[in-house]
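Hi Y.,

Following your request, here is the sequence exactly as I used it, all 230 residues.
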Amino acid sequence: MRKAALAMCSMPRGFKVIKTVKFSDDADNIRYDAAARRLYVGYGNGGLGIIDAATGDKVGEIKLEGHPESFQLERSGPRIFINIPTSQKIVIVDREKRATATVWPTSATANFPMALDEAHHRLFVGFRKPATLVVFDTESGKAMAHLDSPGDADDIFYDSSRQRIYVSGGDGSIGIFQQNDADHYKTMTKILTPSGARTSLFVPELSRFYLAVPHRGAQTAEVRVYEAAP
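Below is the corresponding structure, written out as tokens. Let me know if you'd prefer a different format.
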């Protein structure tokens, strides 16, 4: 991955609010189920709100035992994989039954970011204590690999075309890992970034990785754009 440009993003004109859906507090991650045309919103002390994308109405919720951080929706089945760092668990929910299907306890703590490789039945979870990337088998819940990861990890993305994992951490780095096969991984490189730059987005259609850099001291706020190398 190489840095292609630095850019500040401006908001397009013409947007207006057409619907407001209220949650108790701390609305965080959002995922879209294209097949069912539903939005899932993680919020509060433990819940996923369900919104009908066509009407904008809240149509239900799934109760959880703690605040959900990153979560991923399975496309080929009904499962939702959810990080619950306060209880040191990964919770798997059946979104058709709107109930917990199983729970995987974790030995490391502060499991925040997550990405899913559905083709190989692998779930990538970033832990902050210690700073570790753990690869789980989605069928058994078994941890298949552990790799040293950027500290204060906040986002993880799986690049299926290159079979790579990108992890952005607030310690000031992006970690890039190669998937040799479903059970074997290696660290490719680490790109140094400003401290606190942990929020990111990978767009596979563009082969570009966007990193949000916050304003801190002499460091100005900016969006850094990286291009994934072949």
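The radius of gyration is 18 Å.

Thanks again,
Q.
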